[in-house]
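User: Run a structure prediction on this.
Assistant: Running it now.
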Amino acid sequence: MKKSIGIDIGGTKIAAGIISESGELLNRAEVKSDSSDREKMFTRVVKAVEQVLEDSSFSITDMEGIGVGVPGKVDCEQGIAVFQNNLPWAQFPLSARLREQFGLQRITIDNDVYMAAFAEWKAAKGKKDETFVYVTISTGISCSIIHNGSFFRGAGFAGELGLIPVFSKAANKLERLEQASAGPAIEKLAKKELQMSNLSTKDIFERYKGGENEYQSIIDEVTDNWAQGIYFISSLLDPHQVIFGGSVIANNPFLLDIVVEKLKLYQIPEQQHLLSHMSISTIKQDNGVVGAGLRVFERN
């Protein structure tokens, strides 16, 4: 059985896993990030790899290679982490440093959302003659598009769904989707509308599900904004399938049913085939690690 190491890098934590060629997560480890310095951050990545190996019966020589998902803009060909909002890795030669550290020649890096999308596409048995979209809703909002079996990258920054303008009823103006309805925005909205501070998104959704009617306006605003964003995707790409991940929606799957109903109001009949092909990730928080590991086995 061929194996690889997949790494999912974030500003607060780094997850590493040992992945089989079939996509099975054999072992997983997680360490805290240290974004105070580029070398300290790299040291934490090394620690994550060492930890996942220590907790298993495998060694680095058993691995086919390492795949890494990194936030922001990535030069996949050169193996360089180009730009990130929350990491000190501007123009960081990540692939070269990992080869030097671990002695493995096969190092694959890409944007973290793209890595998660690849795992979801594989899990959904996506077809190479179709258009597949993965949408993540968490601290931020983004998406990745796989068309005819390959990523659609544009000039290098495609998939930034969070930057699309939507009409926010709460603000009575156009706002970027991420500013209006990502996790932090939902918390700010609750504070503004309900005069309640220190509420997490988890608290908001749990209270809504518990029947507290004052949270209905929050749910309506958020899901309407998401539906507007998905309608952009529906109209521009007419995808065959959309999978949703990220903690905000993956942990609250009832929200997708609301989005589907609202999206239907925007769509014309020729677009509504998508409504029955929208679903929540089954891999959830591990999709970045699994996707990064699986990309090692891709030889194109």
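The longest strand covers residues 13-20.
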